[in-house]
Structures are given as structure tokens and as C-alpha cells.
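Internal ticket - ligand job 372, pyridoxal-5'-phosphate:
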Amino acid sequence: MQMVDLKGQYAKIKNEVDEAIKQVVDSCYFINGPIVAEFEKNLSEFLDVRHTIGCANGTDALQIALMALDLEAGDEVIVPSFTYVATAEVIGLLNLKPVLIDASLENYNVNADLIRPFITEKTQAIVPVHLFGQTCDMEGIMKLADEHNIYVVEDNAQAIGASYTFSDGSIKKAGTIGHIATTSFFPAKNLGCFGDGGAIFTNDDELGRKIKMIANHGQSKRYYHDIIGVNSRLDSIQAAVLNVKLKYLNEYADARLAAADYYDTQLQNVEGLITPKRNSFSNHVFHQYTLRVTNGQRDELVAYLKEHGIPTGIYYPVPLYEQKAYSSYVEPGFSLPITYQLCKEVFSLPMHTELNHEIQDTIITAVKSFFN
Ligand SMILES: *Cc1c(COP(=O)(O)O)cnc(C)c1O
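stdout (C-alpha cells):
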């Protein structure tokens, strides 16, 4: 058994994907081939966003997004402490200051109330992360950002395809609400390629133009470099794979949701276990199915499941503020109570598009037998 069944997913679309890859190989147009532009256009249409700019990975996407904002060394960027390291890493790399904040126990995400106390004169941007597959409460975050004239960069590496519903009933896709958004096409993400890949999104034409330049050595036209950029490209083979898989993204989300529903019905009454809460304002595309163990036995459960052949993941075991590389950004003894609690309590069960009741029953039986 595995956390993610990439082989099973590939088997179902093998002919189509192999043919798309072969076309790239036959053309030898490996970098910036027409398929990259075609995929960017298709993804823009899928999300309903004006600009999609492919790049080399989700971490680069975050870096390029922040570079486009022209921030100054020492400017503060508010970021969750309960996230993958990449979100904060690029902030430090650009000599900006990551301001690590707490998460909600309900949905593991940041929200306007958690962000507000950390806004200072130096705050220039917020990077909300749509963790595990559902969006942060973006209406509140955008309102707060507007009031303080702060940029919002959505880290949408885990919730591509999810939708956010505003209080007036209007709906937007995750990654189209902030000033800029980013995603990752790492193979295990909901829209994954066959290597590394990422993308940046914006509805702002000026930012879109700038992001495109930064991702390509800061050039406005070939050999004319207006700003310092990076070399970060989505290659043609990855774009070809993604262009096929994008057609199935809604189906994939349905399969994940069905698997989550089944886990929910079987596990929601297990004492000591809390199944993932669903937001009213966002649907859930279940990048991860992440539960909390409230009886203090998370590590014992994970070890027990491993013995029984059930893989699990702990996303994330250590708060960013406790990581050595980030210690200089916080006072000694700094702690965020919910993040601390989540790092001790969470674990994730296998979640992918190829789950069925038979596989899930094996998992569920093992989990239940631990608690009985
Ligand atoms: C995966 C991930 C990234 C980084 O993406 P890469 O393509 O691996 O560089 C950034 N943020 C979050 C929340 C992620 O899950």
C-alpha cells in the first residue's frame, strides 16, 4: 500500500500521456515549446484567471511571485507556521522577514483574525496557504489586506481546483483571488507532472508581464534584461503531461472527495480521533486526508499502522518557528499554541485517486483496532 498511487493513475491515461510525450520528443521542442503556452492557456481557462505563467517548481513560483512585488530587505511577510517549509524559505532567501503566525484548530489554515495582530508598519505581504485542499477564508483576508495596503500571495500548491464562495454567493477558484497565486506540479500534488513543475497566476496585467520577465532572466525581449530574474521554466514534456491530466482534474477531485466521505463515515465516531472539518466557504479537494489524534497517542498509532502495512504521513511534525533555519526570526521561547498542538496531533491517511472501499476498509479496520 502507498500514500499516493501514481502508477494506478498513470495506467488509466497511459496511451494519451505517452502520445503527448512522444509528440514533444518528436518535435525536439523541449523548452518553451507551443505545448507550454497551450497548457498555460487551458489552465487559465479552467481557473478563470487572466495570466498563468509556468515555472520550474512550486518553490520557484513563490520566489518569483515575491520578487515581482519589489519588496525591500527587512520588509515583513506574514506566513503560517504550520506549512511546508518552502512557503517561508523563499521569504528568507529574498532577505525579507517571515513573520510566522498560528493556524486554526478547525481547518488548519490561517484567517484574518489570526493575521491581524501581526500586521506592522513593515508588513508588505501575506502568504496564506490553502492547506490540505481547502481554501483559507479569502474574503476576510483580502479585506484586511486592502485596509492595510498589503499584497496577498496565495500558496495554492495543495488546493488547485478548489473553489471559494464569497458572502454574496459569488464563487472563485483558489489561486485567483489574491494579487498573485502560486502552485506546484510535484508528482504527488493534485495536478502533478512527471518531474518538477510549478505555475504563477495573476489577474493583474502589469504583474503578469513582470512575472513572465522574472521567470525568464528578467528579459523583456531576447538578450535585453531589464531586471534581475531567474531561470525557471516549465519544460515542454511536463506541460504535455499536465495538459492531459488537466482534463481529468475534476474527476480526480471527485474520486478524492468520495474517498474522504468514506473515511468520514467510518472514522467519525472513533473516540480519540477527529476527522477533517470541512469549511462552509470552500469545497475540499483533499490533497491530504488529515486527522487529529487527541488522546496523545499519535506516534503510537502511526507506528502501529506501519506494523500493519498502512503508510501514513505527518504533515507537519515540526513548527517552522522551531526549525533551526528560522530560529533567528523569533524570540527565544517563542511558541504558537495551535501550531504546536497540530504538529503533535495530526497524521494523514493514504489519499489518492485510485482508492476503493477494499483498500480503505483495510486502513479503517487497522485504525479502529488501534483505538479499541
Ligand atoms: C509542495 C509545496 C510547495 C513547493 O512546491 P515544489 O514544487 O515542491 O517546490 C510549496 N508550498 C506548499 C504548501 C506545498 O505543499
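Auto-summary: The mean pLDDT is 97. Residues 57-59, 83-84, 86-87, 129, 155, 157-158, 184, 186, 196, 198 surround pyridoxal-5'-phosphate (CB under 6 Å).
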